[in-house]
Amino acid sequence: MSHLAEHARAARSRLRLSLADAARLTGIAPELITAIENGSDSTSSLATLAQLAQFLGLTEAGLPRCRPPGMSR
After folding, report:
1. Model pLDDT for residues 22-72, shown as the tens digit of each residue
2. d(Cα 6, Cα 3) in Å, to the nearest integer?
3. What is the C-alpha end-to-end distance of the chain, expressed in Å?
4. Which of 3, 17, 21, 42 lies 20 to 30 Å (CA to CA) from residue 57?
5. Between vectors from CA 41 to CA 4 and to CA 37, what angle results, nearest 5°?
6. Under 8 Å CB-to-CB from 6, ≥6 apart: which residues?
7. For the chain, how long is the longest CA-to-CA vector?
């Protein structure tokens, strides 16, 4: 899940979510989200990592989703 560590913080920023709001909405502890974003978490279950990735609009592998044709950033 190194892709998630690379893209999670940027995805959360694009959604304009604070760490506290992301934690509250996902049910994942803020410390765990910070650890995942820093790439230092290796104890989370794959289900937790996939839940965070999907919540942030990333693929289950932690990569940004492709934008549909015609959509600009």
Report:
1. 999 999 999 999 999 998 877 888 888 889 999 998 988 888 888 767 766
2. 5
3. 25
4. 42
5. 40
6. 39, 62
7. 39
